[in-house]
Amino acid sequence: MNANKKEIPYVMKDHEKVQENEYGQFIGVPVSHPLPTHFLADTLYGKYATLHVLSSATMSEDQLKQVWQCVNGEIDRSCWTYLPYSGFENAAELQTALENNFNFKNSIHYLVEANHAIVGWVGLLNQRSADHVIEIGNVYFSHQLKQSTASTEVIYLLLKACFEQGFRRVEWKCDDLNLPSKRAALRFGFHYEGTFRQDRITKGRNRNTAWFSILDQEWPELEKAYLAWLRADNFDQNGQQKMRLRDVL
To answer: What is the pTM of this model?
Structure first.
């Protein structure tokens, strides 16, 4: 062992802290702000992306036209394999799905704008207000948005909004066979927590679900990493990143 090497003291995380009750049992520590947290949706602005709250009252004909162009321009239907729907035959069918929040109960969806066009959507799902938990899901990043600076900023904007509004935990769940989604979760800073076997039946098939999360205590350092990655000087004149997000997490 290197005698000159300094050991970094371990700092217990909030979710690991316990206390003993009057019966000698270990229990979790009290939450500082236990009142329910309800997500208040509003337009989210970034440098590379803008998130517009999706509703039948606010969605314009132009937005619908733009997002339909993305959907209709996909080279095949592989982008729908792990989503609960199998694509859309026409703009009217897509409009119905958008106006009904894809039949996700108590969800909030955003249309994603990048380069002055709507190029996808993303949802905040399964809000458990009393527990301060919410999930990022139903992600459709079109061929125009995948693996772009804007797509990473979309996740940053959602995480920032959730934690600023008092959520303690943001989840990411996906089919365990969806390798791109699992890689994305880790790249975005989520922690893998395990796989729920035979979690649900989707499109008549078995689905094992991989669970990931970010906790509020982890967000301050993670936000610094996002902001460092999103800096203009991290990209060359062709828009290519100089430093990967994983390098600063």
So the answer is: 0.92
